[in-house]
Amino acid sequence: MSVDQGSAATKSELAYARVREMILTGELAPGAVLNQAAVAHRIGISTTPLREALRRLAQQGLVELGAHRDARVAPLDATEARDLVELRQDLDPLAAGLAAHRRTAADLAGMADSLDRLESLPDDPSPAQLAGHRRFHAALYRASHNALLVEVLDGLWDKTDRYRRHALRAGRSDEERARRAEEHRLLVEAVQDRDAAAATELMRRHVETSLAARAADRLAAADATPRTRR
């Protein structure tokens, strides 16, 4: 049965998807105060479904809600960035190792297709380019055939995208982009060859040298730098 496009639930979903996209792509900057009336007008809805969407985004750590219905985009945080990297240093390699053991022909086809369509991320990536990287990693996660692990990693990806964008602002060399592309190719080969040890180690290095790890280092360094008084 189709959903009524005018229903409150549908409008809330629309608001959630649109604001989430605006946050993850940097259209709404970290720490930005959200004028709910202006955001609702921009999306083409009332503030009621927008507030429901903001509550959902707050639960995911992308929005902070204050008193009197104040809201702002959650700022980037060095501790959160570190926590994300630490989690992914264990969970991503686990998924890669399980994928090498459990992958099916359909899983391999999905990974190969997503690899073929993968673009190296520029300094200011588009939503489609970011989605391409998510598609590749999601295909590998699904090949683990561990539904709870896939769910957790999928949730971490949303938070991590903001830190990837932060790291990309500093730029990357062509050599580094080529190295990341080679890592993606080798990961697919290791899973295809059922080489769990290689897949696990490749993914661990991939996370340790990731954009999120670079963002964590940059944010920690910024926090440690004394601010000049004016």
UniProtKB/TrEMBL annotation:
Keywords: DNA-binding, Transcription, Transcription regulation. It comes from the Bacteria. Residues 9-76 form the HTH gntR-type domain. SUPFAM superfamilies: GntR ligand-binding domain-like, Winged helix' DNA-binding domain. InterPro entries: GntR_C, TF_FadR/GntR_C, Tscrpt_reg_HTH_GntR, WH-like_DNA-bd_sf, WH_DNA-bd_sf. This is GntR family transcriptional regulator. It comes from Geodermatophilus maliterrae.
